Structure formats: C-alpha cells, structure tokens
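Progress narrative, work stream C.
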Amino acid sequence: MAIGLLVALSTLFSIAAAVIAAATALSRGEALDPDGLVQSLAQPDGLVMIWVTLLATGGTALVVYALRGRATPDERRRSRQVLSRPSTWGWMVLVGLATLAASTAIAWLGRHLGSEPVPSNQAIIQGAFEQSPLFMYVFAALLAPAYEELLFRRVLFGRLWRAGRPWLGMVLSSAAFALIHELPGLSANSWPATVQLWMTYGFMGAAFAWVYRRTGSLWAAIGAHALNNAIACLLLVLGYA
C-alpha cells in the first residue's frame, strides 16, 4: 500500500509541478517549450523535488497511518506521559548523536577502504538549500523526521511490534528506510559504495526503531531523527558534506 501510494502521489505531484511551471511561463508571455516541460517533469529542480517529496511521502505516511497504524487514545495518553520523563529526552539526544557518530564512523571506514559514496539526494538537497535555506532547514530538521518516523517506525515497525515480532519489524523497516533513501541505479555510486550508504541508513532506521520501543513514544524517535538531521544539515551548510 505504501509503495503504491508513494509512486502514485510522486507522479501526480511531479505532473502538477510541471503544469504549474508551464502555466507560470505562459502568464509571463513566454513561449511554451515542450522540451523544457518534459525536462522539468523528468528532472525538476532541487526545491521542486523537495516539495514533491514532502507532499508525496508525507501524504503516504498520513494515509497509511490513518488506515493501518492510528494511535488509540490510550496510546496517545501514554506517549504524553513518557515525554514528561527526563530519561526519554536523554535517550532521544543519545540516539540522535549516536546515529550521527555511526554515520561518521562508517564514512571514515569507507574512505580508508577506498569508498567515498555520494548520496543520490545530496545534489538536490544542496541545490534546494541555495534556493531557500530556511525552508530546507525546517524541512530536513522537522518535517522529514516527522513523516518518515510516522511511516517507517509507527506503521511499518509498529505493525510487527504489535504482532509480537519487534526484531523482524526493526530489520524490515530499516531495510525499507535504507532503500527509499538510496535506490540502486539512481547514482554513479558503485555497489560497494551503495552498500555503505545502506549500512548508514539501515543503522539509523534500527536506532530510531530501538528508541521508539525503548521509550514507548514515537516522539522520541522523531526527536532523535530531528537532532541527527539538524546537525547534519548544519555541517552541510558549513561545507562538511
């Protein structure tokens, strides 16, 4: 269901973005360029791609959550109680920093083995940051962690957790998290470099699932994810890609 919705919404919003771009050009009295329209549909610029990602993935997360993983009033009450504990915030910060440290360690090891992969979304993110840095920081540090944790941890991991198979849920949801961030064939990375990126994203997914289960609150996973992304974006802006 999630894959089908993601593909459908991505296609829909990509077409909508191309139509809006064409309508904007016509309203300015510019001649419509069919080749340019096809190009904008096939390869939208960074900021447009971020909006398509936000609407498509966020929409998928909300729909699947509503149909397959909606929290009960009792679950929401327990989650609020958990957030009042200092230990929850401690785990949140610890896991957020641990995922960043693990990513750095995997990158360091990869460099020493002759592998320096470039994430397929890095150029898009850097281009979008140049166009709208404030929006991109909000997107990367707040919006993306919220909808990704809702989809991958609450719905995918949570389904198997509630069925009594949390470790299987952790493995499968982390694998899905890694694949959606780095699909093979979409970049010039070699297979070893792609596997290195999968290890990075897979560890992140497993860590966020672990803190969700450890604390009992999805907000802990969202917070850890947000902290990781906020620091990573700051390093990206400072030139430490």
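Work stream C, second folded protein:
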Amino acid sequence: MSKGCTFYFVRHGETYLNLYRRMQGWSNIQLTEKGSEDVRRSGKGLANVKFDAVYSSDLSRTIETAGIILEENKDADDLIVHAMPEFREVFFGSFEAQGVDEVWASINEVMGYPTVGDLWSKATVPEQMNATKKADPYHHAENYLEFWTRIEKGLIELIKTHRDTGDTVLVVAHGNTIRYMLNGLVPELVAPQPLLNASVSKVSYYDGLYHLESYNQVDHFRDL
C-alpha cells in the first residue's frame, strides 16, 4: 500500500446567517461568538494533530475558522492558510440570504413532492441542486455539474500535491461542500446527514481511492 495522505475536512463555525436560518452560499459574513468558541473547542481537540498543509475556501468564515484552529495547534507555527475558491459553498444565486424554509418551499414546487421533508428524504443531491437552479428566478444558482466541476478542480490540485506523501492535510470548507463532495467520493457514505458547525470528517486517500474514517465528529471538542 502507498503512503497516501489524510484529509481533515472541517466545517466552519456558526455564522449570523446560520443563526438567522438564511441561505448562505457565497455570501460573506462573520462567525458568531458561539461560532468562534466552538471552532476554538474543535481546535483544542485537534491541537496534537500535526498538519503538513492547510487549505480553506476563499470566503471569510472559513479563513477565520482555519486561523482559530491553527492558533490552538501545537505544531502550526510555519503553516499558512491557502485559500481556494474551488472549495466555496454551493452558490444559491438570488436565493442568497433568503429564509431557508421559504427557499426550500420554492425548490419543492419545482420537484413536486408532497412536503419538503419528502424532498430531502427522496431526492438525490444532484436532483436537489438542479431543481434549485430551476427555482431560482435568475437561474444563477449552481446545478450539480457546475458545482462538481468546480470542486473537482480543487481536489485534483490537492491530490497532485499530497498523494503518496503521507501528509496530513487540513481543509476548512462548508457544510454542503463537504457533504456533497464526500457523498460523491466515498461509496460507503450513503445519504449523509448535514454537518454540524466546526465538525471534523476524516478521509484517507491511497491507491487511488478515498476511504472514510469518520464523519461529522464533534466528540473531540474540548472545554475552553
């Protein structure tokens, strides 16, 4: 077996749009006080993990989250955060910053399920994303192909840099980005649940395949 590499995918901390239950894709907004505290608790739990490289999306909430985690890490003095637009959240077009419940009701009108709950439980991720683009009055929201094409560019860059190095890599991104990405990469991850803020999902990559080690973990959090 090759050396491979290991990725720690971390979702950013809670933001004000999370708190207000509003759609948050490419919108830039800061972490709440609770969001910062949870990230620091997550960082303390990761303090002894020696990261060889750190990446984030280029949105402020992930860059802020990555910075807090590095502040708590015992071996991060020489590390810098590489911001990559490829790892942004899904773009929701004109639905950005609108109420979550209202937006999903609009998407469900396109899908035609009896309830939004049925939509979530029965429609695939590609179907949901394609319906979001159709429901957006401007049709600017990303569909699945647009999202995956963007994410794949970032993944190829990471694998090109870290494959067979044995490196441990921190990637701070977004709830849908990480969930949809891992759903597409890891065969055993079926219908993954939404990710908690500041949670960790650990994936190893070797012999050309991604292997899930943990998903949506918060039990490593430590008290401040």
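The mean pLDDT is 97. No further action is required on this item.
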